[in-house]
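pls ignore typos typing on phone
pyridoxal-5'-phosphate + seq
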Amino acid sequence: MFAPQQYLTWLIPYYGRIRYDLATSSAASPDLARLLPLPALDDYNALNTLKETLAHHYALPTTDVQLTLGTSQALFITLAHLLKPGDRVLVEHPTYEPLWAVPQALGARVEFLQRGNDWDLTAKQLAPWTGQGVRALVLSDPHNPSGAVLTTAQILELARWCEAEGAWLVVDEVYQDFLSPQLTTHRHLHPRIIALSSLTKVYGLGALRCGWLFAPPEIVQGTEAVLRYLNGSNPPACAALGLAALAHREYFWQLSQTRARTNFQLVEQWLAQQPNLTWQAPKQGVFGFVRAERDLRPVLEQGCADHGVLAVPGVFFGEPHGFRLSWGADPEVVQTGLQLLSQVLAK
Ligand SMILES: Cc1ncc(COP(=O)(O)O)c(C=O)c1O
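k done
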């Protein structure tokens, strides 16, 4: 049932070993010494406090909040609660592999909804599935790998279709906080939306595994039941560290924004000099999808072995002609990485 996933199986061995990292889709890790002195890691009250803090930041009732180990676990427990084997699930394509691999592993019948050339997704595309018993529609917004953002009107149309079908719109919003320092969540847009996120991407704090989902209370309770099978309790250490990090949230946010802005200019200049590459520049965030005329996986892997620079081959998102380019690292790393990438792609 749990077939190995291609992307994470490929990527994880590279963690901590890429000299010029143009592959990781998060802000670089900030200086965690800021979190010192360390909070009490065994204080179970941290779990409730984190729940209340998230509810406060995102203006939701605490009953809408479930704590998880990263967005990854939020996705898993949401779908494990919602789905039974044979259920029909629609997933955007191309996308981050777990969004379709998890429902598939849970025995669902996964079908794909193709994003357009400009990475759009509209409710009109859902027409063939109307009345077909779809249980969930799963997508990322902002989108991985393009960084594109759907309009509120588009999201609402999708959510209304889900409501009419008795389905749920599951939105992985792990990149959402890149959009604005004023926190918001898709959960506010429509009652049929379940939103998933964490401190991993925007704050560069993936090591803390501090994640959550926002859903109606009955769904939160259902996911809690699944969590008991996985962790027993949530770990208070992750919650305590997450709380300590949230106390510095604005600092981490500014840090990643400043870096992202500087690096984006480097990337735009670089792309302007690449005759065989095109892209639709994202309006925010630290990555975008660069289209090429061929599958660059072998070239990119060789580039990492020879020069220590890596971007993610598009094949891992289901789009072989291109790669996801990330610029969350320090500007010197991005600058040198881009120069090396030119050499790699010239081969
Ligand atoms: C769309 C998306 N969701 C989830 C994750 C994993 O997030 P987390 O570290 O919060 O589990 C990633 C990481 O690449 C991602 O791109």
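The chain has two domains: 6-25+250-345, 37-247. The pocket of pyridoxal-5'-phosphate is lined by residues 25, 70-72, 96, 140, 144, 172, 174, 198, 200, 206, 211 (CB under 6 Å). more later
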